[in-house]
Design brief:
Layout: E1 6-14, H1 20-30, E2 34-46, E3 49-55, H2 58-71, E4 76-79, H3 85-95, E5 102-104, H4 122-129, E6 135-136, H5 140-147, H6 154-165, E7 171-175, E8 183-188, E9 193-198, H7 209-222, H8 227-243, H9 270-273
Parallel strand pairs: 1-2, 1-4, 4-5, 5-6, 6-7
Antiparallel strand pairs: 2-3, 7-8, 8-9
Length: 277
Amino acid sequence: MTAPPRVLTIAGSDSGGGAGIQADLKTMLALGAHGMSVLTAVTAQNSVGVQGAWELPEEAVRAQYRSVVDDIGVQAVKTGMLSSPGLVTTVAELLSDVGVPVVVDPVSVSKHGDRLLADDALDAVRTRLLPRATVATPNLDEVAQLTGLKVDDETGMRRAAGLLLAFGPRWVLVKGGHLPGQAVDLLTDGTAEHWLRAPRHDNRHTHGTGCTLASAIAVGLAEGLSVPEAVRRAKAYVTAAIEAGFALGAGIGPVDHGWRLRRNDRPRPAFARRSPG
């Protein structure tokens, strides 16, 4: 039998299952890839916030990476939560000769506003990690932290993309989901410009959106799609996942990574029809 595309995520764990490693692996499975993981941190996290975070030692990150890459091999890599300068530098060094597309999601703040990236790690992200990126996928909060530019319109998104490209990624996807109106993102390599627009769904349960989008892009690149093709497909997948997001706990629920399993009016399992609580 032919093995599915092999995609590696290097990120933190979300114990609530909506973001991080858990979201990455769900997305990879939903899109037909074999997901593998290098765990960088453990968080105590649920629908209302992050109650604690514990970084793994750099040697543990190196060992996980070598174990997977040297034996199984990878066709694309996605990075997420890398909370300290040491971890950022370690991962950047590991990726220096990986030879496959790399999607960098420069995670700095959780959906609930909890800081996930130390201030002194920002420079390492700019100078060590972003130059390794085939695609970098910052949201507007992360754009502000990395560039100092506060974006409030599409003209600002274009300016931000130029500043980010100067750090070395081949492509930048500036995510404009925090702006009013349609959910608009800008993908550019400094020459070609692709504006991706989608309807904004009236659903507050959007935990894990960024992780899900970056992982979906990585799957497309592992399959051999071009960057614009991979991003367009990933945008369509995550837009539907946002529309189908569901309530869990007392706060913000996750996007529905398995929305395709419930499409075409398939009967939903009994647990999905009960009220949360």
